[in-house]
Recover the amino acids of this structure.
């Protein structure tokens, strides 16, 4: 595979760190949010449109484009539901004074993780929480859902990954191996493998078919790994880090293929917090503490 790394666009306008990205309501748009509480819809670099302003920082969002629904996690103020067609808030679901680190969807359920180690299950038909349970006594930092296995993996700040079934949310596996908080999880390889990234700067791969046995451990970055995505069409993994870099890996053998950083590519000058792959356009987006979002051509 030939790579041709090129920065295509830089999106500016946020007043503080950008923490999260998600798919937009069309193939050519996306949403961003962060420490300034602004939720911005982007179509082009010079066409950012704020669609919501919340009172606190936003670490997580989830867009349901077929339903015109955008869920926003407003730290200490619960979940906000935005009608993306009308561009207005239609619901606020309180969740106590907690910071929300991740949101994932499973069928008609939203799974929400928070800084005190709890998991919250919300029924999107009724827009009510139907279950709350404690996973650990430290932060539940990240979530990954495998519909194939009907399982959910949760990364915690007690250095462990816990795997639950998605029927009764019963604990099935406790995975140990990292030496610090687990910040990102991603199923890949037909959902049989789980890759984890940690504040210990290592990538670890676990085989779900073998009770999540560890099959790889890689010193991947210089500082904490903030996010991992799987680019399925090209069988690649992409990681981003507090060390300011983005790295592209072969998903089959975990060989490092490319490094995107400031010296090579005029990339971000501070921590890179989140990645988003734009499948139709074949672009990679990266969000950073430097208040910007970059769009990358990889090939």
């Amino acid at each position: 595979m030939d790579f041709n790394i090129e920065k295509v666009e830089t999106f500016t306008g946020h007043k503080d760190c950008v923490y999260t990205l998600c798919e937009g309501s069309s193939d050519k748009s996306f949403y961003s949010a962060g420490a300034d509480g602004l939720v911005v819809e982007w179509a082009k670099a010079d066409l950012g449109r704020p669609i919501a302003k919340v009172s606190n920082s936003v670490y997580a969002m989830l867009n349901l484009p077929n339903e015109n629904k955008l869920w926003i996690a407003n730290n200490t103020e619960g979940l906000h539901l935005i009608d993306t067609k009308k561009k207005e808030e239609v619901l606020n679901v309180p969740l106590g004074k907690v910071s929300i680190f991740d949101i994932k969807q499973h069928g008609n359920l939203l799974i929400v993780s928070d800084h005190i180690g709890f998991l919250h299950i919300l029924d999107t038909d009724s827009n009510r929480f139907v279950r709350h349970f404690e996973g650990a006594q430290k932060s539940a930092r990240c979530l990954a859902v495998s519909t194939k296995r009907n399982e959910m993996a949760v990364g915690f700040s007690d250095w462990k990954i816990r795997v639950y079934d998605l029927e009764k949310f019963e604990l099935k596996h406790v995975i140990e191996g990292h030496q610090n908080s687990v910040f990102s999880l991603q199923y890949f390889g037909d959902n049989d493998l789980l890759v984890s990234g940690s504040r210990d700067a290592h990538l670890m791969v676990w085989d779900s078919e073998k009770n999540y046995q560890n099959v790889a451990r890689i010193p991947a970055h210089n500082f904490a790994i903030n996010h991992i995505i799987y680019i399925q069409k090209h069988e690649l993994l992409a990681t981003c880090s507090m060390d300011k870099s983005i790295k592209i890996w072969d998903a089959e053998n975990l060989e490092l293929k490319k490094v995107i950083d400031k010296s090579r590519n005029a990339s971000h000058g501070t921590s890179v917090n989140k990645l988003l792959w734009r499948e139709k356009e074949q672009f990679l987006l990266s969000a950073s503490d430097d208040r910007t979002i970059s769009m990358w051509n990889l090939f």
Q: What stands out?
A: The first helix runs from residue 262 to 265.
